[in-house]
Design goal:
single chain, alpha/beta, Rossmann fold, ProC C-terminal domain-like fold, 8-stranded mixed sheet, 12 helices, elongated, P5C_Rdtase_cat_N, cytoplasm, pyrroline-5-carboxylate reductase activity
């Protein structure tokens, strides 16, 4: 079994550690890095996985999972670039950053796989999209798919589609949370206690998602199944259309896509 190092044990990094342990990976085959000692102690106590410094993590591991914020990537690359060899598999979870950035900084032939996960990884329900760089093999993509499969579902996409994935599923949970927040507020406005409104809305969301996953039909058909002639639902749908909610959602996802492209562009060479 490969030794895996998670470089940056924030929420996503911790969720991956937890998922890998649940999937049967031995704690001694996992290490992580984290800049704050209190956080290192907390995670070590919680999971039995050792926090180490970055050079030690790179030396020990066969698979390096880079899980830092995009704005923190340059100092990390400066530190690990002299240590990374083509025998190691680099998996980047950094939003917007292309595989070419890593390939240029590491030794020639180093395999890199780009991943866009999302925060439901915290509850084992992530949606992750993976793309192989120039030197990543099919077997290495299989390895990454297996790793990410321990915390949710995985799809493969061309790297050219990763900015769209970032906008749609990477940012997607925030859109759902935003909608749930608005619906709960509406329930309070109508006189329901917050706790009751929240339970009604959250369970409605969980049940609706389960119906979608189980393939009950196209979302339009499923919505029509709730929408009776001259009923309450169609009155609500009319207001959503009147206020341009559908158009606003499309615009929001387009804006997130543009921002993802911008993040990557700052790290691309002008000749690319």
């Amino acid at each position: 079994m490969s030794t895996i190092a998670v470089l940056g044990a924030g929420k996503i990094g911790e969720s991956l550690l937890s998922g890998l342990l649940d999937a049967g990976h031995a704690p001694e085959k996992l290490v992580f890095t984290e800049r704050y000692q209190q956080r290192v102690d907390e995670l070590t106590e919680r999971y039995g996985v050792h926090g180490v410094d970055v050079p030690t993590a790179v030396e020990r591991a066969d698979v390096l999972v880079v899980s830092v914020k995009p704005q923190d990537i340059e100092p990390l690359l400066d530190e690990i670039a002299p240590l990374v060899t083509p025998e190691k598999l680099v998996v980047t979870l950094c939003a917007g950053l292309p595989t070419g950035l890593f390939e240029r900084r590491f030794a020639a032939g180093t395999p890199v796989v780009r991943v866009m996960p999302n925060t439901p990884m915290l509850v084992g329900e992530a949606m992750s999209a993976i793309s192989g760089g120039t030197h990543a093999t099919e077997a290495q993509l299989d390895t990454v798919e297996q790793l990410l499969g321990s915390v949710g579902r995985v799809v493969r996409v061309p790297e050219s589609q990763q900015d769209a994935v970032t906008a749609l599923s990477g940012s997607g949970p925030a859109y759902f949370f935003y909608l749930v927040e608005a619906m709960v507020d509406a329930g309070i406005l109508l006189g329901l206690p917050r706790s009751v409104a929240a339970e009604l809305v959250v369970q409605s969301a969980v049940g609706s998602a389960a119906m979608l996953r189980e393939g009950e039909g196209h979302p339009v058909i499923m919505r029509e199944g709730v929408t009776s002639p001259a009923g309450t639902t169609i009155s609500g749908i009319r207001e959503l259309e009147k206020h341009g909610v559908r158009a606003a959602m499309i615009d929001a996802i387009e804006a997130a896509h543009s921002r993802s492209v911008e993040l990557g562009a700052t790290h691309r060479r002008t000749d690319e």
